[in-house]
Amino acid sequence: MSETPRPSSFGRVAEDGTVYVRINDTERAVGQVPDSTPEQALAFFERRATALEVEVDLLGSRIRNGALSPDEARKSVQNLRTSILEANAVGDLAGLAARLDPLAELIDSQAEARREEKAKALAEARARKEEMVAQAEKLAESSDWSTGVQRFRDLLEEWKSLPRLDRAADDELWHRFSTARTTYTRRRKAHFSDLNAQQSEAREIKEGIIAEAEALADSSDWGATATAFRGLMARWKAAGGAGRHVDDALWARFRAIQDNFFERRTEVFTAQDEEFQANLAAKVELLTKAEAEILPVTDVAKARAAYREFIAAFNAIGRVPSDQVKAVDSRVRAIESAIDEADKREWARTDPETRARAQETVNLFTAKMDKLKEQLAKAEEKGDKSQIQKTSASIATYQIWLDQAQQTLDELTA
To answer: Whose CA is closest to 42, among 15, 19, 67?
Structure first.
């Protein structure tokens, strides 16, 4: 053990093989290395100092990269500083510990940056939570029953992902959010409870309507039953919804009953239309023949007899299409009216009182004409041109009236 070790500024090996490390103006023993030369023992403890240098470099890198929080970094620096100063190693332990000092400033800077980031994150979280509360309170008063539940779930999941604020602020916002969610849930349950009651009532009403429709299904009273079905349809629409699937099933039953009735009615009406068209053709043929035989009316008795035969055959044929009734009846009435007018004329012609009045009119105008002719002769004898002109004009007028009266009298006495 008397071998002289190589020179070292930070350690020495004593005669008994103990290795010492110098730290500033002091030294302390760091240990022995059995069965080794002083140089080997010193090198062993120097390698430990080198390992500590690697730890310092690694810690500095981790702190600069932000791998540790400021508290973790401070604790790691303090632990490594203690490890260095108390290490059983030979080297510039004081200098190595001093290399940790700049890290303290870096940690303080990172801590300040983190405080600023945290403050910013908390401010953003507060703003977002206030916005979410406003959305929740608005949603709580809405009637968005289809997407509202999922929207509240999404808001709740987002809420959980946000950082907590100070306790008072966070509790106050959470209370508002939770109250809004509870309000919405209660209103939604009440809505669907009312809806279920309404749907149950609508189902009962519609089942009753179906029962009424089934009672009408085989009816052949087409007009009244069609009106009844329209009334049932109006009541169906007024009943409200019974739930989509229930409504679909009930409507299928009700629609099938209606379709069956209206299909039967269509078949009957189609057959009737064909029959009515045939009736129309037959009636038009009769009308055309009657018009040719009766009009113009020259013999009232003969015309009435022909009309009676015609109208009996006409009425026996049956109904015609509704859009042709007016036109056909108009032609029938025209024949009847022509006979009535001819009858009136015949009665007037053969009435003694009528002929007497016509004769009196002729006699009156004849006497007036005789008197006017006498006045004209006197005027001509006197040469009174004015009187001649006036009397001649009166004679011309009365002659026209006399001719008309004579014509009427001739017609009545023919």
So the answer is: 19
| 160 and 133 assigned to the same domain | yes
93 and 19 in a single domain? The answer is yes
Whether residue 327 is found in the same domain as residue 392: no
Q: Please list the rounded mean pLDDT of every run of 10 residues in the chain (414 residues).
A: 55 93 92 92 94 95 92 94 94 94 91 87 91 93 90 93 90 94 93 85 88 86 89 89 86 90 85 87 91 90 91 91 91 92 80 78 88 90 89 88 84 68
Peptide bond into 38 cis (omega under 30): no
Q: What is the predicted pLDDT for the residue at 353?
A: 76
The CATH number covering residue 359 comes to: 1.20.58
Beta bridge partners of 23: 26
Residue type, 80: L
User: In terms of Cα–Cα distance, which of 250, 249, 259, 245 is closest to 207?
Assistant: 250
Return the amino acid letter for 138.
K
Residues 345 and 384 both lie in one domain: no
Q: From CA 11, how far away is CA 89, in angstroms rounded?
A: 9
Q: Phi and psi at residue 145, in whole multiples of 5°?
A: -80, -20
Same structural domain, 161 and 142:
yes
Q: Which long-range contacts (CB under 8 A, 24 or more apart) does 53-62 make?
A: 53/91, 53/96, 55/80, 55/83, 56/80, 56/84, 56/96, 56/99, 56/100, 59/100, 59/103, 60/99, 60/103
pTM of the full predicted structure? 0.42
Closest by CA to 150, choosing from 124, 176, 179, 188, is: 188
Is the separation of the CB atoms in 159 and 129 below 8 Å? yes
- Domain check: are 190 and 205 in the same one? no
Name the token pair of 393: 């004009």
Does 3 map to a domain? no
Domain boundary pick from 154, 175, 194:
194
* 86 within domain boundaries: yes
The verdict on residue 58 lying in a domain is yes
Predicted local distance difference test score (pLDDT) of residue 8 = 66
Range of the domain at 132: 123-194
